[in-house]
Amino acid sequence: MRRPFARALAGALTLVAGAAVAPLAQAPTAAADSVVIGGQPVKVADSPWVVALASRDRFGGIRDGQFCGGVLVAPTTVVTAAHCLGRQVLGGPVDSVADFRVITGRTELRAPDGREIAVRAARVNPAYDPGTNAGDLAVLELAEAVPADHVLPMAGDGHPGYEAGTGAAVYGWGDTSGFGDYAYGLRAAQVTVLDDEVCRRAYPGNSDGQYRADSMVCAGDRSGGKDACQGDSGGPLVARGRLIGLVSWGRGCGRADSPGVYTRIAPLIDFVSGLQRGGRPSGV
Ligand code: ARG
């Protein structure tokens, strides 16, 4: 019953991301017969820093109310996409995160494993621009800490993971087909970090959105079929053992000419770690 609602949400998320939804009439691409898009099931035990962001109040109990992904970067700090919290998406002010739960240690959303942790405070990157989707990152402060070895380090400038041609993996519980087939189990797809010039050509700034190399990184697969999709937003793009991006936006899902666009982590490390050091996130 909640499914259409979830799908409507996915649509809204795409709009916020400034990307057009692929028209249904369009011929299915390689993505349609691959089942994140073109990924395979993975266990959260092997990637304990991946979390699901959920609200049963807003999105129902199905799939535990999962609506976005996130990443543990410190024992009480999760980063996710700013558009996952935006009032445009959730129909309310960003300060109402009291119903949010961060689900850790649960590969399969129907299983009782792992923990659900409340969010004590949230802060959206002040430089986030919902119009262009630049700087699409928010920080959630958890009410309880996870073990220190559950965190993924962020990749600073100069980390080799940002180099074009680097293999990367994207994780999530989102749509596996581009047609609203949301996953119950965590999946990961292997993608390649693309050259900024390729990303710019794919998104030159028309109605589908504009790639900005200073705040975004793009990744995909030469022949398409491997990508993040709706519901994966805020989840990690990992290269060489570090977090380089957060799922942010794209045109359709898994199309060869339309790589996935991710929030570039390096320019936001100071913002994220500044909050950790004592500048408490606020806003609940
Ligand atoms: N904005 C979407 C979400 O909120 C993520 C879309 C990613 N799309 C892509 N083709 N990589 O879940």
Explain this structure to me?
A hairpin with a 2-residue loop joins strand 13 and strand 14. The relative contact order is 0.22. The N terminus is likely disordered. The chain has five helices and 15 strands. With 284 residues, the protein is α+β, with helices and mostly antiparallel strands. The strands form three sheets. It has a six-stranded antiparallel barrel with strand order 8-9-12-15-14-13. The chain starts with a helix and ends in a 7-residue tail after the last helix. It has two domains: 113 residues, Trypsin-like serine proteases (Thrombin, subunit H); 107 residues, Trypsin-like serine proteases (Thrombin, subunit H), CATH 2.40.10. Arginine binds next to helix 1 and strand 14.
User: Based on the structure given, which CATH architecture of the largest domain is correct?
Assistant: Beta Barrel
Quaternary state of the chains: single chain
Report the average pLDDT across residues. Answer: 84
What would you give as the CATH superfamily of the largest domain? Answer: Trypsin-like serine proteases
Give the distinct bound molecules: arginine
The total of beta strands comes to 15
Alpha carbon gap, first and last residue: 30 Å
* CATH domain fold name of the largest domain: Thrombin, subunit H
Side by side, the strands of the main sheet go: 8-9-12-15-14-13
Instruction: Please summarize the sheet with the most strands.
Output: 6 strands, antiparallel, barrel
Category by helix and strand content = alpha+beta
The CATH class assignment of the largest domain is Mainly Beta
GO molecular function: serine-type endopeptidase activity
Protein name: Serine protease
Keywords: Disulfide bond, Hydrolase, Protease, Serine protease, Signal
Signal peptide: 1-27
